[in-house]
Amino acid sequence: MNAEDREAITRVINRHGFLIDSGLLDGLDEVFTADVVYDVRDFGGGEVVGLPAMRAWVLGLGDRNPVAHHVTNIVLDEIGDGVVHSLSKGIGIGADGTARSVTFDDQLERSEAGWRISRRTVKARRTPLQP
Asked: Fewer Cβ within 10 Å of end Cβ, the chain: N or C?
């Protein structure tokens, strides 16, 4: 994985929040593969498979959607030819001003369209550090 790959992957991960927060769900193919597995079991949503199902799930959340998605602390590791594992932290801001933290555990694959997330697991951070 070279510097251009790292920049492209980081842009893909960052793009997610801009698309979701703007309601530009037709642009999800700029971030995810057509057959993405979006694992939101930690939020009671199961595994959402494919872009149409993901779009429906996001719309189904309605007012429970955060008004802002922020991503930080992106860590990338190449795990195969054209396959990268990414861990990042997400912060969601609710309409009432509450903030929630998640960990995104992603697998990205290089395709003709560029780097795309093929699998994302979203884990809620509910417990502070316990030494």
From this structure: C
